[in-house]
Design goal:
This protein is of the alpha/beta class. It has a single domain, classed as 2,3-Dihydroxybiphenyl 1,2-Dioxygenase, domain 1 (Roll), CATH 3.10.180. It is built from 2 helices and 8 strands, in the order E-H-E-E-E-E-H-E-E-E. Strands 1-4-3-2 form a 4-stranded mixed β-sheet, with helices on one face. A 4-stranded mixed β-sheet has the order 5-8-7-6, covered by helices on one side. Helix 1 packs antiparallel against helix 2. The longest helix is centred in the N-terminal third of the chain and has 13 residues. It is globular. The protein starts with a strand and ends with a strand. The relative contact order is 0.23.
Length: 125
């Protein structure tokens, strides 16, 4: 249903380094670089970061977050670890999250601008 998504960032170089490390765990690489935007994906840009000079930090109460699909729980663990190593913050450690309708494994991180990013998979176990 969704072809691609984008988030605003206040420092394109810093955020490109953060997302290169973090998204690599999910199999995404930098596929497009332009003066004010960078696109990450597997074969085409699925996740964009766009320079927004002077952008304030995203408020935690905004409620906005982006969720990316992972193939395995190991990818999610690597995503979370890479984000923390690259300057992000944890917004929920990797783990199983049982709910009434579905059981899933996820991790939540916050990028250097306050964007909330989740990685999720649905283990069969």
């Amino acid at each position: 249903m969704i072809d691609h998504i984008s988030v605003g960032v206040s420092d394109l170089d810093r955020s490109a380094r953060f997302y290169e490390a973090t998204l690599a765990a999910l199999g995404l690489t930098r596929v497009v670089t332009r003066p004010r935007t960078v696109g990450f994906g597997k074969s085409y840009p699925e996740f964009w970061i766009n320079l927004r000079e002077g952008m304030p930090r995203v408020a935690p109460e905004s409620g906005v977050h982006i969720c990316l699909r992972a193939k395995t729980t190991d990818e999610i663990d690597a995503f979370h670890a890479a984000a923390l190593s690259a300057g992000g913050a944890s917004d929920g450690a990797p783990g199983l999250r049982p709910h009434d309708r579905v059981r899933y494994y996820a991790a939540f991180v916050i990028d250097p601008d306050g964007n909330r990013i989740e990685a999720v998979t649905f283990p069969n176990e």
